[in-house]
Design a protein that fits this description.
Elements (H helix, E strand, L loop, with lengths): L1 H36 L5 H31 L6 H4 L4 H28 L4 H28 L4 H4 L2 H25 L11 H11 L2 H14 L4 H6 L1 H20 L2 H4 L20
Helix pairs in contact: 1-2, 1-11, 2-4, 2-11, 4-5, 4-7, 4-11, 5-7, 7-9, 9-11
Length: 277
């Protein structure tokens, strides 16, 4: 019974950190490709991309620090400071995740503004949901810092509110972009190339981030303790999912700009990507 309890407490987080390391490696490769392929992008876009990568790096380092401290250094220790007290690495990890999510969601809002006919209502709703997620996350982090208790991560009312606001924001992004591409006369979603189709549907429309946020929302409202612990798995991966999604959109312009890729995707199939400068 003790082994099962230990597995439920630390297993999902360890799995999330392990997968997150792989995703971080992918995001670093995507960033290196970006700075080499698009040196003429606007300075603002470059600064945002760099800031997201730096915050994602901080998120990765603090994840490893938390994992090492709890599972390696504190393996035989059951003191309050090691098991239940909020540490600097977990606090920094959560803060960096909230900021990365907000920045990428704002980036998606800008993309919606371009693709969906400069809709003020839709873009404003997405930005409002993104801001709500950031505010709820900040309140949750402040609540945890006041009590210095990790348990507030599961008991705080701001935790599920943050997950729900983020899921609503990502859902709006995914739905609006999917419908916009669906209405395109280029036949974008009818291509036989499966790799291109999966890239468009699951990455460029934000489906991965939406599913991650939705999973956290569902698990946050579970009454059983197992559901609370399972939120650690998507939680440690969420920052990487956002950074990879944004970089994938920026790097997809290479399919338009590189003549060698014309056989895979026609230029008319990405009406908005080529305008992101």
């Amino acid at each position: 019974m003790t082994d099962v309890s230990t597995a439920l407490k630390w297993g999902p987080g360890f799995v999330g950190i392990s997968i997150g390391l792989v995703m971080y490696g992918v995001s670093v490769c995507q960033y290196l490709f970006y700075i080499m392929a698009f040196p003429r992008d606007r300075r603002l876009i470059k600064c945002v991309v760099l800031l997201v990568l730096v915050l994602d790096t901080i998120n990765t380092v603090t994840s490893l620090s938390f994992c090492c401290r709890t599972l390696v250094l504190g393996r035989w220790t059951t003191t309050y400071a090691c098991v239940l007290q909020l540490s600097w690495d977990l606090s920094t990890n959560l803060g960096s995740r909230f900021v990365v999510s907000f920045l990428v969601q704002c980036f998606y809002a800008h993309r919606i503004w371009m693709i969906c006919g400069r809709s003020k209502l839709l873009t404003g709703t997405v930005l409002l949901a993104a801001l709500a997620a950031l505010v709820f996350g900040t309140l949750m982090l402040q609540d945890m810092n006041n009590t210095r208790d990790i348990g507030n991560l599961f008991t705080s009312p701001y935790s599920p509110a943050n997950a729900m606001a983020s899921a609503i924001c990502d859902g709006l992004i995914t739905t609006s972009i999917y419908i916009s591409l669906r209405r395109s006369h280029s036949g974008l979603l009818r291509k036989e190339n499966r790799v291109t189709k999966l890239n468009i549907i699951f990455i460029q429309t934000g489906m991965i981030t939406f599913l991650s946020s939705l999973t956290m929302t569902i698990l946050s409202y579970q009454n059983k303790p197992a559901g609370e612990y399972f939120t650690a798995a998507p939680g440690f991966m969420l920052s990487k999912a956002y950074s990879n999604s944004m970089l994938a959109i920026l790097n997809a312009r290479n399919l338009v700009d590189n003549p060698q890729q014309i056989s895979l995707v026609a230029p008319s199939e990405f009406p908005a990507l080529a305008t992101i400068r």
